[in-house]
Design brief:
Mean pLDDT: 83
Number of strands: 17
Distance between the termini: 88 Å
Structural class: alpha+beta
Order of helices and strands: EHHHHEHEHEEEEEEEEEEHEEEEH
Largest sheet: 4 strands, mixed
Shape: elongated
Radius of gyration: 41 Å
Strand order of the largest sheet: 12-13-17-16
């Protein structure tokens, strides 16, 4: 472990330098070494050293702290360049290195997770009710087989970005009335990864992925509704440089049924019954989602009566049980198609005292609507 270097020597001033002398020395060196005017990587490294030294010595409290501890060998720095890790230098003098909590810094990497993919899937009403196994053909990005997803031509590897020194970010330092302002931005050369693909793979052009058309199975559970989204983990676009693949989100589109309407897990339909069957009672056959169901109609059943068939609705999504089927009876009023039918209806009306005399209207019966 190397000790902290002489910050005064970095700025080219003596240990008894005044604040004005330190400031003038920093400005002179900053104008000479700033990356905007000097493209030499070594100049950029020196600029960071000078800025870090000035940030310490321009503050009276930090300068005193450095004078007490910095030259005694009591503060260690990482091995490597004279300053080791500049993040460590700032942490030492800005509250992190003398017993404070150090700021952790994530190491840049080219690893990127793959993107998610969205697809719409159309279902019939029956498929949504009972579930189905379907397939979807998607255009995805798969790991390049030539470079195994590295993006590098076989036999080569990535190298550290010369622009950011492998850190993945560019630091800009500027002096203001409030002191030195340090800002960091993603490195535009390596896209903040800290690495450069010097010899891109001839197949994927350095991306590490190639287009692939793939057919994937989709298991649709029973009881889904229109607009339900299914998530298929790990079958989306491949990640970069070994990153995890994305997911596929399947948005379900359910076609309406010609007979049944759905509300939650219950089904609803209208059952048309001839007047004679409604009056006399009958056993009728009604269509359900499970097939034909026999239903017994009591004599005199009225239009608007609702029959409930338990367990004939939609299965509960993800759990046991099913909803119900509700059939609302609509009594069909006959229109006489022959003279004989008319005579029979007139005779029935006479027997029930329901046939009014000519010119004398019969009083209609009124009743309160159900539920009111």
């Amino acid at each position: 472990m190397a000790t902290l270097p002489d910050l005064y020597a970095v700025l080219g001033v003596g240990h008894d330098a005044t604040d004005d002398e330190i400031r003038r020395a920093y400005r002179r060196l900053a104008r000479e070494l700033h990356p905007d005017v000097n493209g030499d990587p070594e100049a950029e490294r020196r600029f960071k050293e000078v800025s870090a030294a000035y940030e310490t010595l321009s503050d009276p409290g930090r300068r005193q702290q450095y004078d007490l501890f910095g030259q005694s060998g009591g503060i260690g720095m990482g091995a490597g360049s004279p300053f080791g890790d500049f993040g460590d230098l700032f942490e030492v003098f800005f509250g992190g290195g003398l017993g404070g909590r150090r700021r952790s810094r994530r190491r840049p990497t080219r690893v990127r997770n793959g993107d998610d993919v969205a697809v719409a899937l159309e279902l019939s009403f029956e498929e949504a009710v009972f579930g189905v196994e379907k397939e979807a053909t998607l255009d995805l990005l798969a790991e390049c087989s030539r470079c195994d997803g590295s993006g590098c031509e076989p036999g080569t590897s990535t190298s550290a970005c010369s622009r950011c020194g492998g850190t993945g970010e560019i630091q800009d330092m500027a002096r203001s009335i409030f002191g030195t302002v340090v800002t960091a931005r993603p490195c535009p050369v390596c896209d903040a990864t800290g690495e450069i693909v010097s010899s891109p793979c001839a197949t994927c052009a350095g991306d590490g992925r190639t287009p692939e058309r793939r057919t994937i199975p989709i298991g649709v559970p029973a009881g889904v509704t229109h607009g339900t989204d299914l998530r298929l983990n790990g079958v989306g676009n491949a990640g970069r440089a070994g990153g995890a693949p994305g997911d596929v989100y399947v948005s379900l589109r359910v076609r309406p049924h010609e007979i049944f309407a759905r509300r939650g897990q219950d089904l609803f339909a209208t059952m048309v019954v001839p007047m004679t069957q409604a009056a006399l009672g009958a056993e009728v056959e009604a269509q359900t989602m499970d097939g034909i169901e026999r239903i017994r109609l009591e004599a005199g059943v009225e239009s608007g009566t609702t029959l409930r068939l338990r367990g004939k609705g939609v299965p509960n999504l993800g759990r046991r049980g099913r909803g119900d089927l509700f059939l609302t009876i609509l009594v069909e009023t006959p229109r006489p198609g022959s003279r004989e039918e008319r005579r029979l209806l007139e005779r029935l009306a006479e027997l029930r005292s329901e046939r009014p005399q000519k010119g004398t209207p019969q009083a209609a019966r009124l009743r309160r609507p159900d539920g009111e």
